[in-house]
Amino acid sequence: MTAKSLAKKRLVCYNAGMETRIVAFDIGDRRVGVAFSDPFGSYAVPGETYFRAGNFSEDVKAVAAIARERGAQVIVCGLPLNADGTESAQTEKTRRFIEALEKEAGVPVVCEDERYTTLEARRDLMASGISAKKDKRKKAVDSLAAAYILEGYLAKSKRRQDMKEEMKEESNNYDDDNIIELIDDEGQTFRFEHLMTFEYRNEWYVALTQVKEAEEAEETEDDEEGEEVAIYHIVGEGEDEHLETIEDDELLDEVFAEFTAQYEDFEDADEAASLEPDEEE
After folding, report:
1. Can you tell me the distance from the alpha carbon of 3 to that of 262, in angstroms, rounded to the nearest whole number?
2. What is the pLDDT of residue 178?
């Protein structure tokens, strides 16, 4: 294969991977508003409005058919909630429709809070003058509400993606010279950042913090506790040197207090204060 044909193949694969069509529905008792994303999942476009036939199964199949026609890989459905965020009878009705739709469509369905979306759609339609034409308003308000639902989902997805990129960048910024790998008894390898090797009562200890991958860091982003520190006792010399966990809780507290005191001499005091001992160690 020539370099030119290889480059073309890579470009085709890259473009194919970027195409993620998302379809959103604003599910009502009489009408279902439809919106869809551009191929890159960047913005929402209002679509048609489906007028329900009054038969649950028939309506589910019809909405699923719309999703397939649009090439949906993900479906986003608005979930009606009360103003205070609690669920209502309408919420339960919509959930039943969503569950049936997911089975029928065969693609993931995500629920998105739809509070105020219909109100916003009507307000925008009034500003555009469409509100004066009743038939057009009914057809437009639901699809526009679906577009607002989809926009909310896309905005959240973008924030999550940006956060993943930031976490990945932070992970890549670790100083390789300061990273060590430890293998446990089951043969699993863990990466740690070396914080400090220090002495306490004529014994040597090492303080480490585990290097988290982007996905793991995202899961713990809302954790208000400080960064966990693992402290090990350095035992032996030369080739026999190895790390042992500190089983004595009282000794662990003393060693951690010593580490904190010494760490404050070299690092910012606020950062040192945020660190907490890993109780599992």
Report:
1. 57
2. 72
pLDDT band with cut points at 50, 70 and 90 for residue 250: very high
d(CA 264, CA 178): 19
Given a contact cutoff of 8 angstroms between Cβ atoms, the answer to whether 125 and 143 are in contact is no
> Do 193 and 130 sit in the same domain of this protein?
no
Residues 145 and 41 in one domain: yes
User: Does residue 194 contact residue 206 with C-beta atoms inside 8 Å?
Assistant: yes
Measure the CA dihedral 217/219/221/225, to 10°: -100
What local confidence, expressed as pLDDT, does residue 226 receive? 52
pLDDT confidence of residue 16: 34
Q: Give yes or no: residues 136 and 231 share one domain.
A: no
The pLDDT score that the predictor gives to residue 277 is: 55
Pairwise CA distance, residues 97 & 94, whole Å: 5
Total tally of structural domains belonging to the chain: 2
Query: Do residues 26 and 52 lie in contact, with contact meaning Cβ atoms separated by under 8 Å?
Result: no
Given 135, 169, 203, the domain boundary residue is 169
136 and 25 part of one domain: yes
184: helix, strand or coil: coil
Q: Please calculate the CA angle 170-43-87 and round it to the nearest 5 degrees.
A: 85
The CA-to-CA distance between both ends of the chain, in Å, stands at 54
Residue 25 shares a structural domain with residue 118: yes
How far, in whole angstroms, is CA 106 from its chain's centroid? Answer: 22
Which alpha helices (H) appear in the chain, and where do they start and end? Answer: 3-18, 56-69, 89-105, 117-128, 134-172, 214-219, 249-266, 269-274
Do 120 and 189 share a domain, yes or no?
no
The domain in which residue 112 lies consists of 3-169
